[in-house]
Design a protein that fits this description.
The chain is an alpha/beta fold and 465 residues long. The protein is 42% helix and 22% strand. Strand 8, helix 9 and strand 9 form a beta-alpha-beta unit. Helix 3 crosses helix 5. The radius of gyration is 23 Å and the shape is globular.
């Protein structure tokens, strides 16, 4: 597709809207598709040409609420809806926090917020309702957040193997297990440094999250070493109400490790199957079976943890009937939280080259992801789970969302504070991101640690020499 813009310097935004309809567009090749958009004082004039046929449109500025970027995106979205006969349930929203956007509209426009959300962004009634539920679901966490509160994130960027859809920077313990002892030693050093920084900043951490990767790849000795440092520097010094450990993969969960976690104050864990279809597990590169997940879950239920499980809609060769069975099996376990992700692909995923990523994404779209999520949404209502956090990514199948569902009073506050930029986050470890939130504007300022574990070790070795 070729894109020609006149008096419009928003190529990236236009591309994002085009990708909702044409996932294979390159935006420069002459493939018979042409999109033009021109701006003047009256509005945006657009035209779309395909196979010699031309459609034109005009989007006038609406003084009540339009601003230029929104008007451009709407003009492109509307004409592409017309020529493709398709719509996105999220309209032109490709950003990460739609519920936060609705909250902002509520503060500015009161009862008109829902109408404006639909008109300005073309969001469907179903997604508006979901956002409204999320805002209610996160209310308890917002009310309990004090002005000096913060959260702590500790990164363990190692996994037993790399899932083929994954784009996170994680080291496979199949190849880099030898790095773990040095990594944990330097991580404990940074934990002490961040403790001092938190005290100097006058912050009071309320939640702590150890994520990855798969933190439960640590053996009992290294896990205990890490948790001793966490207890000495954080748990014994600050009134932390929530301590989450992402156990993650079933093939890393053992009763020994969970005993250590409970002994050192962990309140929440995740045990994540992603799917309970063994053929799909094999296809995406996970080294465990559904039976392994049920074994790990049964072990976890012996303890006092709040338990979350993750599943993914849109995995390769996973179709509605298979996804429905996974959903029913998860509901039968009655976990405290269920997090439902939509398949999200980047070129850095192990699926490989751009063409393979696109092929996987297109196959997933044909498998009926929206239908899968609709089914689960109906069932979670019957099982009395409520949505409490929501985020979107730009390259998800069918432009769908990721949602955390919870039983009453079992929601994960860290997820809310981190995802919605509610308060400062102190990131520790390779790939961890620290965030400072401007109290006046709410704007987040991010600072990232070096991404790879071996570089993290190298940098800290040099700094200590």
């Amino acid at each position: 597709m070729k894109i020609l813009l006149e008096n419009i310097s928003l190529l990236y935004d236009v591309q994002c809207v085009c990708l909702l309809f044409f996932p294979r567009v390159s935006f420069s090749e002459d493939d018979g598709k042409y999109l033009t958009a021109k701006a003047d004082e009256a509005g945006i004039f657009v035209s779309f040409t395909q196979n010699g046929k031309i459609e034109t449109g005009f989007y006038p500025f609406v003084k009540e609420y339009d601003y230029f970027r929104t008007a451009v995106k709407l003009s492109v979205y509307d004409i592409l809806c017309k020529v493709t006969k398709k719509k996105s349930p999220w309209g032109i929203i490709t950003g990460i926090r739609p519920a936060t956007l609705l909250d902002k509209l509520r503060k500015e426009n009161g009862d008109d917020a829902g109408r404006i959300f639909a008109e300005r962004y073309r969001v469907s009634p179903e997604k508006i309702s979901l956002c409204e539920e999320v805002l209610e679901g996160r209310r308890r966490a917002i009310e309990e957040n004090g002005k000096d509160n913060a959260s702590i994130y500790i990164s363990i960027p190692f996994c037993p193997s790399r899932c083929k859809y994954c784009s996170f920077v994680s080291s496979s313990t199949e190849k880099e297990k030898h790095l773990l002892p040095d990594y944990i030693s330097f991580l404990c050093d940074e934990i002490r440094e961040k403790r001092d920084m938190i005290i100097a900043d006058g912050k009071i951490p309320s939640t702590l999250y150890i994520g990855g990767g798969t933190p439960s790849v640590l053996d009992g000795r290294l896990l205990k070493k890490l948790l001793i440092s966490v207890e000495e520097n954080f748990l014994s010094r600050f009134p932390i109400k929530e301590f989450t450990f992402e156990a993650g993969r079933a093939d890393t969960v053992s009763e020994e490790k969970l005993k250590i976690l409970e002994a050192y104050g962990t309140t929440r864990i995740s045990v994540n199957p992603q799917t309970l279809n063994d053929d799909v597990l094999l296809a995406i590169g996970r080294k465990h079976t559904s039976a392994d997940f049920f074994r790990a879950y049964d072990i976890a239920r012996k303890f006092s943890f709040i338990i979350n499980t993750d599943i993914i809609a849109g995995l390769p060769s996973d179709y509605p009937e298979s996804f429905y069975k996974t959903s029913e099996d998860i509901f039968s376990l009655s976990p405290d939280n269920i997090t439902v992700h939509t398949l999200y692909l980047k070129r850095s995923a192990d699926f490989g080259a751009a063409e393979e990523v696109l092929s996987v994404k297109e196959a997933a779209e044909k498998s009926g992801v929206e239908k899968m999520l609709s089914y689960l949404d109906g069932r979670r209502r019957e099982e009395k789970y409520f949505p409490y956090y929501l985020y979107k990514q730009k390259n998800t199948v069918e432009n769908m969302e990721n949602v955390g569902y919870s039983k009453y009073a079992r929601e994960c506050f860290y997820n809310i504070y981190m995802m919605d930029d509610i308060h400062d986050i102190y990131g520790i470890g390779a790939g961890a991101v620290s965030k400072r939130i401007d109290p006046e504007t709410g704007r987040a300022f991010r600072k990232s640690n070096t991404k790879f574990a071996y570089n993290y070790i190298k940098e800290r070795t040099v700094s200590e020499s």
